[in-house]
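G., before I forget:
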Amino acid sequence: MSADDTVPDDAVGTDEDTTEVPRPETGSADGSGDADARARTTPRDEGDSRAPGITDAPFEEGAEMPSLRDHPLAALVGSVAILLGLGAAVGLDLVPTLDNAGGMVTTVVLGVLLVGVWLATRQFFATVSQAETRDVEYHGSIRVPGAEYDDLLHEATAALGTRRATARGELLSRVRETAVTLVGAADGVSPDAARERIEDGTWTDDAEAAALLADQGPTVSVTDQIRAATGRPSRFGVALDRTVAELATLVSGVDAAAREAPGDTRPEAADTRAEERVRRDRRTGRWTGLAGVGLLTVGVGLYASWSTTEPSLVVAAAAVVGAAGYVFLSSAPDPDVRVKRTLEPAGAAPDETVTVTLSVTNVGDALLPDLRVVDGVPDGLVVADGSPRAASALRPGESLTVSYAVTAVRGRHVFDPVQVIARDASGAVERERHVRSGEPTVLTCELELVADESIPVHSQTAQRVGRVATDSGGSGVELHSVREYRRGDPLNRIDWNRVASTGEFATQQFREEHAATVVLLVDASAPAHVAPRADARSAIEWELDAADTVLASLITDGDAVGLTALAPAECWLPPRGGKGQQARARNLLETDPIFDGRRPEGDIYEDIEARRLRRELPADAQLVVFSPLCDDTVASLARRLHAHGYPVTVISPDVTGSATVGQRLATVERAERISRLRRATVRVVDWDTDRPLAAALAAAERRWSA
Amino acid sequence: MRVHRRPARETVGLALAPGVVVLLCLSVTATGVAAGIVGLAVVGIGTDRGRRNVVTAGCGLLFAGVLLAGIDGAPPTLALFAAAGTVVTWTTAHHAVGLGTQLGREAPVRRSVAMHLAGATIATLCAGGLALGVFAAASGALPPSVLVVLLVGIGAVVYALSP
């Protein structure tokens, strides 16, 4: 199922690039005529206005091809000397005979050898600089809950100097904070008392865990660092693991023994550093040291050929020096390529597979001996099969085709520019470009229609408030009162009989029937962009699924439903009932950039959000909050609103993992947040996403009615 | 689906192919071929793991084999092929590692690697062939004064070429 995303023609002209972003000349021009009809394309609009632009890097010093002109004198003297020497070798009398030449040869050979060795070893310490490519295969915005703890743990064992101690201290203080809350709740004591118990180690029977939190645990030693380097857990890590397991026993809903195997096919996190897209030329420096090897061979070879008969190594040296010359002879053309992308099928339902075919054509006049391309797979999409990357050599007019499959995810996904890296034949110079396709490629994927069957969530939401006939006048069925006409009253409520008989305008008021007013609050803040693995479905997707289901069932029940989001940007749909409202809400969920699955830049602040919600929410509204509960802000906001008289239900997809210590710690923290919410009488549906939402709701209902 | 930022197996094979030629050329001397075999194995491991320094160390051993063979009196043609093969192995292995880092194991890259291999082979063989021709025309061992001039000249040019 798909919607056509075509925007009216008149928008095409006006919506042209926000052109402070310089685009490479290539690929931007006349490719639109042959754009494949199946690739539904739109001008770039709000959908990718957040996509990073392409900027020009100032050409790096020395990014031009290395040249003999760098050292003209040495090049001239050297060339003349070699020609003279070669001439003399063939028998011409060009070189005068020197006195004591044997001693000079030895001296010069030794010098050449030393310089050769010195230059050659530079290869070992040289860093090859080349363009970095992003992990476009993964969902770009996803973090794994607890990854920050794993990073800290890694730093606490592997980092150098004071950073190690800092990381260890920070990690321990966070664990201790969680422990204070958990011990306090489990033993029913004040935070201060809990802190005391943790300091004297009486909170657990596990001596190692008790010692760690009392700050008497193992420090990181040299053996730990060796263990870390070989991939084995450090003693500190083991102690931390035992502590987390002990903490897990203090809170319900966590299986302390659960261990997911971190396998090769289950990446923990993607490399999602958001590098800016820069047009850059650089020297790779990969040939550093080759000249030294040449010198070394010449030294050994000439010395050997002087004493023996055959000049084997001199010839060998020529081969090496020839390779160095190759670096100077090959040229790196500026890649002039055109990019075309087609999607098959053009639109898809969630979880369907879409085949992307990218074709890169060399439209310049020069051979591109080494061309590498990485397609700009949108952040929200995950590559299911094949690779969006390729390398080849392209003659003028030739094309390179890359084909791969992505799994469609709800939302509107604009493909990013293709990263093109062109090198000369020797690889000494690299030119990095980012080329947009003639027209932007967009994959649109809508939410699946939810069957309008009754979803158990309604029974609890309707039960709480239900349809209440109120004592206030307004619109409704049963007559309540008649009052003086006020400007703006609807015509159909004017008492026309009275107007006819007395000439006075009056307005009839009916008894208002309040349906339940439910506002869905979807957590789209940065911490909600989490998943158990980099290639898994993110919490925000589960939230939207659940929100859509709840929306459909509430609307069917005749309740008024509103929609808002916890995000740095604004999103507020006032509560109303009816199918129209359902369509509006659904349209927001599907197309609002807030829900596009990209991690937002800014943070959210509890105070600001609480103030905004209290201003916007109708007094009788109840809230259904969708959040993975992977940070404290949302949990504490939910408790606060609940206390302010807006009954809160939290539907929380469980996206925590258990493969690493950090992930298990995050699991414990989430369980702690849930139990704190429940103690504050907030209803929490802890949704194991392997099972349908209905099952989780039914289980939660049993718990509430018990 | 995961990005393995390591060279594809196929490109590792391509990078090692010229190294096998080197081994064949080195088989005239026992020490040379021994160093060559160890070196090539190290190159193979380094390329597969995507470790540039391991590749360079392996090629260093391979090259030590070439030097040993040359000192032991291998004929110029064999020395030329061995040296050229070593350089081509080295640059192709580095090319494969670079491709692995940027594009990962699954991307189709065969043509790029083949192109690089062909270019490097031609460049090294041409330069070596030129030197071979000159020395074939030369008569006997070089006089010391010519050696001094050649060494100074080559040193100057290599300095000028040094990136």
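The CA atoms of residues 135 and 141 of chain B lie 10 Å apart. The two ends of chain B are 40 Å apart (CA to CA).

More on Monday.
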